[in-house]
């Protein structure tokens, strides 16, 4: 594989952290957390309060879905890192066994 053991563990750590953080952010966006309203890509001009609420609710849902999809991608990347770790360990084990047989 492409990654060595240190790189694989680092990628696994980053992936685990990203999955946790993005899942929590997605949950908070689904709950329409007011602390995250600055992070919404909203236009600055609205004609009424109802117009703002409608656009904000839709945007909260879109951003939450994006967070969950990105968390899923990081989860796949973490699984790939686990595969690299297992392959590296098997490679080291084979090398150790071949050196012991000589």
From TrEMBL:
Predominant location category: membrane
Keywords in alphabetical order: Membrane, Transmembrane, Transmembrane helix
TM spans (from-to): 7-31, 63-85
Annotated compartments: Membrane
Membrane topology annotation: Multi-pass membrane protein
Classification via InterPro entries: RNase_K
Signal peptide, first to last residue: none
Family to which the UniProt record says this protein belongs: Belongs to the RNase K family.
Protein name according to UniProt: GL11780
Organism: Drosophila persimilis
Gene assigned in the entry: Dper\GL11780
């Amino acid at each position: 594989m492409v990654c060595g053991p240190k790189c694989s563990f680092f990628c696994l750590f980053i992936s685990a952290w990203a999955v946790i953080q993005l899942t929590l952010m997605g949950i908070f966006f689904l709950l329409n957390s007011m602390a995250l309203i600055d992070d919404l890509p909203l236009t600055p001009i609205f004609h009424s309060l109802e117009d703002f609420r409608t656009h904000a609710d839709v945007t909260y849902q879109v951003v939450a879905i994006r967070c969950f999809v990105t968390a899923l991608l990081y989860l796949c990347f973490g699984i790939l890192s686990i595969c690299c770790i297992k392959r590296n360990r098997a490679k080291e084990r084979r090398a150790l066994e071949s050196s012991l047989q000589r």
